[in-house]
Design goal:
This is Xanthine dehydrogenase YagT iron-sulfur-binding subunit. This protein is of the alpha+beta class. It folds into two domains: about 130 residues, Roll (Ubiquitin-like (UB roll)), CATH 3.10.20; about 70 residues, [2Fe-2S]-binding domain (DNA polymerase, domain 1, Orthogonal Bundle), CATH 1.10.150.120. The protein is built from seven helices and five strands, in the order H-H-E-E-H-E-E-E-H-H-H-H. The protein has a five-stranded mixed sheet, sandwiched between helices. Helix 4 packs across helix 7. The protein is elongated.
Length: about 220
């Protein structure tokens, strides 16, 4: 039995009636952002905005969700989420800011590190709904191509990554620890960064990158 194309319905995302297929069509031309540069393509922001506008205008809300407004990288996002949703899952699955990685999901690897009011936090261990008054910064908000954060430049210069999966968390943690009262030695950096695990073992290069930025700063 033939299926009429008009009877096929695309699945909708948690942001409203924007389907995965439609969303991908928005960002397909934008390219892939690397963890070291932490770029959020403009198409992603456009897709999120479109979905939010549709949800608002049509008044749809998923049963069991709550409305929250999160300020991420200087932009306010009003979304409907499960009250039990972690900040990590909300960033990745609702706001499509996938630079923040899900590693262990138990607060042990540091891949999901973000800044909340300037302090480094494992986003897998905090509820998104609890951060509505906070200033949240992810790797996407740290720097842009042509205007990288000094820590991003240092990681590139010193090959502070291999597979790259932990890199965004390493960089976010390093930027925060540079403002914390740690000693000047390599051992102090290792202690300060001990919550961020690199499964590839690029620790010497990571320490070198962090130290360069600390000395310049």
């Amino acid at each position: 039995m033939a299926i009429d194309e008009k009877d096929i319905k695309e699945p909708t995302s948690s942001l409203g009636k924007l389907s995965r297929r439609s969303f991908l069509s928005h960002i397909g031309a934008a390219g892939v952002a690397t963890a070291a540069t932490g770029v959020a393509p403009l198409a992603i922001s456009a897709a999120i905005t479109e979905a939010q506008e549709r949800t608002s205008s049509e008044g749809h809300a998923i049963p069991g969700t709550v409305p929250v407004t999160l300020k991420v990288n200087g932009h306010a996002y009003s979304v409907q989420i499960d009250p039990r949703a972690t900040l990590l899952d909300t960033l990745r699955e609702t706001l499509y800011l996938t630079g923040t990685k899900k590693g262990c999901d138990h607060g042990q690897c540091g891949a999901c590190t973000v800044h909340i009011n300037g302090r480094r936090v494992n986003s897998c261990l905090t509820f998104a709904a609890m951060q509505q008054t906070a200033e949240i910064t992810t790797i996407e908000g740290l720097g842009q191509p042509g205007h990288l954060h000094p820590m991003q430049e240092a990681f590139v210069e010193h090959d502070g990554y291999q597979c790259g999966y932990c890199t965004s968390g390493q960089i976010m943690s390093a930027v925060a620890m540079a403002e914390e009262p740690w000693g000047a030695g390599d051992g102090d950096v290792k202690e300060a960064m001990s919550g961020n695990i690199c499964r590839c073992g690029a620790y010497p290069n990571i320490v070198a990158a962090v130290q360069v930025v600390r000395r310049i700063g």
